[in-house]
Amino acid sequence: MTDVENVDAALDELGMSARDLWIGYFAVGGNGSLTEVEQWLAGSSDPSDQDHDLLAQAVNDEFVSRKLNHPIPYRADR
After folding, report:
1. Which of 9, 41, 54, 57 has minimal CB crowding within 10 Å?
2. Domain count of the fold of the chain
3. What angle separates helix 34-42 from helix 49-65, to the nearest 10 degrees?
Protein backbone atom coordinates (compact mmCIF):
# COMPACT_ATOMS: atom_id res chain seq x y z
CA MET A 1 0.00 0.00 0.00
CA THR A 2 1.38 3.42 -0.93
CA ASP A 3 1.55 6.37 1.45
CA VAL A 4 -1.47 8.03 -0.14
CA GLU A 5 -3.43 4.76 -0.09
CA ASN A 6 -2.72 4.58 3.66
CA VAL A 7 -4.10 8.10 4.10
CA ASP A 8 -7.13 7.30 1.93
CA ALA A 9 -7.85 4.09 3.89
CA ALA A 10 -7.56 6.03 7.15
CA LEU A 11 -10.03 8.61 5.88
CA ASP A 12 -12.50 5.82 5.12
CA GLU A 13 -12.02 4.37 8.60
CA LEU A 14 -12.56 7.78 10.20
CA GLY A 15 -15.44 8.77 7.93
CA MET A 16 -13.54 11.87 6.82
CA SER A 17 -13.89 13.56 3.44
CA ALA A 18 -11.10 15.07 1.37
CA ARG A 19 -12.39 18.46 2.54
CA ASP A 20 -12.12 17.38 6.20
CA LEU A 21 -8.54 16.27 5.52
CA TRP A 22 -7.73 19.54 3.79
CA ILE A 23 -9.03 21.54 6.77
CA GLY A 24 -6.89 19.47 9.14
CA TYR A 25 -3.89 19.72 6.80
CA PHE A 26 -4.32 23.49 6.59
CA ALA A 27 -4.63 23.71 10.39
CA VAL A 28 -1.22 22.06 10.87
CA GLY A 29 0.51 24.32 8.36
CA GLY A 30 -0.28 22.94 4.93
CA ASN A 31 -0.70 25.46 2.15
CA GLY A 32 -1.89 23.27 -0.71
CA SER A 33 -5.37 23.77 -2.11
CA LEU A 34 -8.32 21.43 -1.67
CA THR A 35 -7.88 20.54 -5.35
CA GLU A 36 -4.25 19.53 -4.74
CA VAL A 37 -5.26 17.35 -1.79
CA GLU A 38 -7.93 15.70 -3.93
CA GLN A 39 -5.34 15.09 -6.67
CA TRP A 40 -2.94 13.54 -4.17
CA LEU A 41 -5.67 11.24 -2.86
CA ALA A 42 -6.65 10.28 -6.43
CA GLY A 43 -3.03 9.46 -7.24
CA SER A 44 -2.84 11.92 -10.12
CA SER A 45 0.05 13.73 -8.43
CA ASP A 46 2.30 13.07 -5.44
CA PRO A 47 2.63 15.30 -2.41
CA SER A 48 6.07 16.47 -1.38
CA ASP A 49 7.55 14.80 1.68
CA GLN A 50 6.55 17.83 3.75
CA ASP A 51 2.98 17.82 2.42
CA HIS A 52 2.70 14.08 3.02
CA ASP A 53 3.82 14.53 6.61
CA LEU A 54 1.27 17.32 7.13
CA LEU A 55 -1.48 15.11 5.69
CA ALA A 56 -0.34 12.30 7.98
CA GLN A 57 -0.31 14.69 10.94
CA ALA A 58 -3.87 15.80 10.20
CA VAL A 59 -5.12 12.21 10.01
CA ASN A 60 -3.12 11.09 13.04
CA ASP A 61 -4.44 14.03 15.07
CA GLU A 62 -7.98 12.89 14.29
CA PHE A 63 -7.16 9.33 15.38
CA VAL A 64 -5.65 10.62 18.63
CA SER A 65 -8.67 12.90 19.27
CA ARG A 66 -10.80 9.74 19.09
CA LYS A 67 -8.43 7.99 21.51
CA LEU A 68 -7.17 5.66 18.79
CA ASN A 69 -3.66 4.79 17.65
CA HIS A 70 -2.11 7.00 14.95
CA PRO A 71 -1.36 4.59 12.09
CA ILE A 72 -0.08 6.86 9.32
CA PRO A 73 3.73 6.84 9.15
CA TYR A 74 5.66 9.98 8.39
CA ARG A 75 8.11 9.90 5.48
CA ALA A 76 11.07 10.12 7.85
CA ASP A 77 9.79 6.99 9.64
CA ARG A 78 9.94 4.80 6.52
Report:
1. 9
2. 1
3. 90
Residue 42 placed within a domain: yes
Show the domain range for 51: 3-67
For residue 73, is it within any domain? no
Rounded distance between C-alpha atoms, residue 37 and residue 77, angstroms: 22
Residue 76 located in a structural domain: no
* φ and ψ of 8, to 5 deg: -60, -45
Report the percent of the chain where pLDDT is more than 90. 73
Spell out the alpha helix ranges (H) of 15-76.
18-27, 34-42, 49-65
The secondary structure of residue 29, as a DSSP letter, is: T
Fill in the amino acid letter for 67. K
CB 59 within 8 A of CB 14: yes
